[in-house]
Amino acid sequence: MVARRFLSGPWLPIGGVVLAVVLILHDRDVELRDLVTFAAYLVLAVAIPGVFLWRLLLRQLHTEDGTPPTWFEDLSLGTIFGFGVQLPFYLVSVWVDVPQLFLVVPVVVLVLSVAAPFGRRTWTMPTAKVDVRVSWAVGLVVVYAVAWLARYAFPLRPLSLAPYKTPSVDETFHQALISELLHRFPPEIPFLLGTPLDYHWFVHAQMAADHWATGLESSLMLRELMPVAMVGLTVLGLAAAALRLTGRPVAAVIAPALLVVGVFTLMGPHYDAGTFTEPFLSRRYVSSPSQAYGFMMALPAIVLILEVLRPDRLARRLTWLALALALLALAGSKATFMPLFLCGAVVLLLVQLVFRRTFDKTVAALTALLLIVTVFAQVMLFGGSSGAMRVDFFLTSKAALKSQHITISTTAQVVMTVTLLVGWLLYGAGVVGLVRGRLWRDPRTVWMTFSVLAGVSVALVFFRSGLSQLWFQRSVAELVVLLSAWGLAVLLPNPVTKRLGATLVGLAAGAGLVAYLVSRYAEAGNRVVQQATYHEILATALTPFVLIAGYLLLWLVIRLGRRPSPGRAVLVAVLLGLGLTHVYSLAYDTATGRTQARPVPPNQFAPGGVQAAAWIADHSDRSDIVATNVHCRKPTDAKCDNRNFWISAYSERRIVIEGWGYTATTNGAYSDEARNSLIPAPDPRRLEINDAAFTKPTTETVNRLVQSYDVRYLFVSKLYPVDLQGLSALDKTVTKVYQNKSYVVFEVPKAEG
């Protein structure tokens, strides 16, 4: 009896998934001790408080609704909610200079769970069961997602890399923000003293909290541990959202599977889709932690928005409170989600006013809440910065053509635009089921649909430096697959028969195989594997429409013959199956041991830099200010690349002026004539005062720098302009405290009294 219950329960698939993930990460050089430490932290400090508060705030769903949530829903969404719950306590802990104080929260929750009657009731409320087959299927999706990252993303930034060979300058940027939030709140840009931090920094604060709780390094968090945690929780949370929305276990599998499988293209299985036709899983999933974190943190907010928009009942006050908390947690995770959710709510309100001539107080309240949180985030977190966003119709399509070295013409722009839309929206093909089920009138459908359209429109109508308008399109992927899974669940009978299920899966698998073979054939003829030809782009744009036309022709012929016509689910299965090219590619590459081209990352800075910066971190106060002669990424380049962040990252201190890339001032100075990374320093006077202390060191120049910016340490690179002998001679003004082959650190003695 016990064995049968174990085999039919969720613990076996959970154990299988955990074991598979551990083996994958261990193969990528993650120590078992670090995995156990991180897993224990997630369970004790994130999951337990998060699930407790999630169930407490949504207890009416368990006690008053005919379909109470499953433990699967509470565990996945509650754990994600736990990150949002933890963050404000961590920030307060940093503010009072006791950074580990936030770990009291799980202790309080455990005490309440045992000692308080409401705490015990929270854990024992009734829950529904989930089909064990769903557990296995969703678990396989998680394993696939982690395996994809391990195959295509992790090798590009292996843990074995020396710190000075960081594969991307972006990683040092993220490390700098983590270092800032390890020690200081409110945060600032650490590499340009006195500059407000107007970036979505919640993920960096989270990784800072992770470090204080576990002692694990930020590079390990950035490269592997947090990406795996985020992709796993995103898959589980999306499955829970689909299950809550539709009530159908099949939708809980379809939605996350569509998300991780990827977009459809015929540009080759190894085409670099990291910029324009980017799927959910791409190299950017690791290099852009804020987007990955935003995907995860959006799910509790999405579920709660769908809950308050349910047409069959009014949400309780605690549900609104939970929604407000979830939106605040999302607001600083990624700036692109809130405006899109707000657009969807505004259109829903207008649709009801114009077409139904009703003023829905619930929709109005939702719109007001979204507006308040959006304005709060824009003003308080992002400083009102727009990042130089401007209207520029179809610049995205032009940039996509230019990236593939294809001549820009009206026809080429139309083809590329259709190709982009196919890639972004084809896995939403199941939405046709909502038309058949007349669910297109449901307020949840209207809100999700127009939020998606808003994201796609921003990507095609606007331009922001660095093609950042594309982040809006990426942010609606979860809504696209939720709509698709919901529509497909409407098309399918309940329950789905084995014969029908096997038929549809076979059609999808066959469509994907054909697409993979065609794509592979096209790739074999390309001179550059990661580039596409015009014909491949055209084929990608036309293929779905050819299939739809073929289905309609077949339907018409069969109907004229008075025979049963194929259902819409057949066409949807074929269209959705086209995205399986990525699954076949992973399977083939893994089975054949295909080697990836992995160029050795260039040195971001000279060896010894981390040791010199770490000396400052170990021997200074968190409020101490550092000045440096390092501003440009390369000391010998004719033009200064302003993306230099590594000294603030490893010294964990604020720098008078290190780099100035990725700041609002730099982004706002964008022009079509110059890349953002080559824009000059925003404050030439500061740069002059700073550099004079290094290149023309005298008691006067050093004291002017020290007194102007309260400098405590000078971090000197011998590779950049400096009069090292002159600085060393000022032994009464500065004292040499550290030196290696390439770097020297000077300390400014504290003033007496």
Keywords:
globular, 9 strands, 33 helices, 753 residues
Question: Could you characterize what this model shows?
Answer:
By secondary structure, the chain is mainly alpha-helical. The chain contains 33 helices and 9 strands. It is globular. The longest helix has 29 residues, at 218-246. Helix 29 links the parallel strand 5 (625-628) and strand 6. Helices cover 62% and strands 4% of the residues. Helix 5 packs across helix 14.
Distance between termini? 77 Å
Mean pLDDT: 89
Strand content: under 5%
Structural class by sheet pairing and helices: mainly alpha
Compute the number of strand runs.
Answer: 9
| Share in helix | 55-70%
Put simply, the count of helices is: 33
Tell me the overall shape: globular
Strand arrangement within the widest β-sheet reads 6-5-7-9-8
Which spans have pLDDT < 50 for at least 5 consecutive residues?
none
Largest sheet: 5 strands, mixed
Q: Over the alpha carbons, how many angstroms does the gyration radius reach? A: 27 Å
